[in-house]
């Protein structure tokens, strides 16, 4: 199956009747209007006239999505609205060299190694790519299958900003997610988005993937709220892992990136998914996480960075921030790289989870964990 791209051939068939030679509005204004159009509409507009093609094409190619699935399907063959506007990569091959410089944001979904190798003619050279989204598989990988050279689609990409979707701490300990050598050399900002329940999984290994980010100065870890299923066990069932504390992973993260600013979003939600945790509010849980993590990080700094002055240690500790999704949305320029609809969905989900547990805490006075400690 050939790779598919977001340069769509689908979408509304309405084509505005604009004269071939003259445009009714200034170029800047048309570009602005086009920025709100869907990929399908943009593709249609590109075919209206040369003048409109010149304006609409850069907008169309600004965000290129590469996915192994057919138009409008996800990996199980089910229609997925988010991918409904994918077109064929052949479209962009025909348009050739001129398009390469238009791609600013690139999204690549996880795929089998045979998929990216099947497209032998396509060597992606996208020198202007600034932001790279990698949608990792259920197993936290980009490549479903081993390829020691890494994904061929990403060999000439040098993004400044990288976002791992469906990230899992334990897979940051793998030798490679399927990324080619040197992909992260220029990366300054990394955002990992993982489901809250994934936070309960320990990694044990060194965070090898993070060692490939030589120039990283900022990392954000967002725990994405998810539906709570009371019948599911979210923690680890193996007795050897009983009592494992997810906060160790955050400490390890801070330890692996001593020079990067670290922002942990939504850690206060994690304890809801662990049946063995005592009941407390999101704020209280987040505050506790912050105290525990910072204390441990400080101890590690004293042990591992003896040459650091107390001021430098303090500065490091302060560069580790804990916040919930609302604070994150207020403080950070997240809209530059995250989908606004998706973040709004998280917000709704977060409110639901929080509401659900606050109600349970009120109606379930039998839970006497704190009392039993006496
Ligand atoms: Zn690949």
From TrEMBL:
Start and end residues of each F-box domain: 19-64
InterPro entries: F-box-like_dom_sf (IPR036047), F-box_dom (IPR001810), LRR_dom_sf (IPR032675)
Any Pfam family the entry gives: F-box-like
Origin superkingdom: Eukaryota
SUPFAM superfamilies xref list: F-box domain (SSF81383)
Protein name (Swiss-Prot/TrEMBL): F-box domain-containing protein
Organism listed in the record: Kwoniella europaea PYCC6329
Origin organism lineage: Eukaryota, Fungi, Dikarya, Basidiomycota, Agaricomycotina
